[in-house]
Amino acid sequence: MVDTQDPVVTMKQEVGKAAARRVQSDSVVGLGTGSTTAFAIQYIGERLKTGELKNIVGVPTSFQAEVLARKYGIPLTTLDVIEKLDIAIDGADEVDPQKNLIKGGGAAHTREKIVDSLADLFIVVVDQSKLVTKLGSTFALPVEVLPMAITPVMHQLEKLGGKPELRMGVKKDGPVVTDQGNLVIDVKFDSIDDPASLEKIINNIPGVLENGLFVGLADIILVGSIQDGKPVIEE
Ligand code: 5RP
To answer: Of these residues, 66, 112, 144, 199, which one is catalytic?
Structure first.
């Protein structure tokens, strides 16, 4: 159960709500993945229920987002039906000063990049700990890979100077499998000096579906922190 007394949970809740408040009626909304975005999805649902918001359709970025959207009564659509989104709300694992991101902590970055990149306005919801001066300084870069290509892709990632590791499930008894049935390699780089070129180089390795570098996509970063025991949200 979610501990609503925990200040960190309260702060995530407030960041999620702040993003959900930016959603307007008659819009197509990208629904991101993760514990912070989950609160945004919940609050969009609440606004729909009270009638404050009308005529919203969501595009989920993962099975998790889809389940939450159904739970909170948000009608869903697909990219076969709509051409673009008005707004997308999503979390991140690292954010640099240029608003470039590392995503994929929840193994959903492939669908997230597709959906978030189609939005007129992409809002990222994070807590202060995710802000870094250089991407790769704290978080390993997630790369979604076809299962049969795991070994050759790992070799290529090593040649690029990374330390790749196959992502295992919490019980360590098997690998994490993505919503698309693929595997995730987490690659630790000492630092990522040129995210735009690394994004392209990794995506060019045969067998790679997508990596978690989101370069030039984010419009607004909403950052939550706890000050004097209270949640504070800054843009
Ligand atoms: C999932 C993601 C998440 O958005 C990211 O991991 C942040 O999640 P949280 O809000 O739980 O910290 O990229 O693939």
So the answer is: 112
Examine the residue annotation and report whether 46 is marked as an active-site residue of this protein. no
H-run or E-run covering 89: strand 85-90
Q: How far is the CA of 106 from the centre of ligand 1 (A)?
A: 5
Residue with tokens 């990219």: 79
1 pLDDT above the threshold of 70: no
pTM for this entry: 0.95
The finding on whether 30 has its CB within 6 A of some atom of ligand 1 is: no
Question: Residue 3 above 70 pLDDT?
Answer: no
> What gap in Å lies between CA 154 and CA 106, rounded to an integer?
20
Nearest atom (ligand 1) to Cα of 105? 6
Question: How far, in Å, CA of 104 to CA of 176, rounded?
Answer: 12
Closest CA to 27 of 70, 71, 84: 84
Is the separation of the CB atoms in 25 and 43 below 8 Å? no
Q: Between the CA of residue 103 and those of 112, 119, 130, 149, what are the distances in Å?
A: 9, 17, 11, 22
- Burial-class residue 92 by CB neighbours within 10 Å (0-12, 13-18, 19+): buried
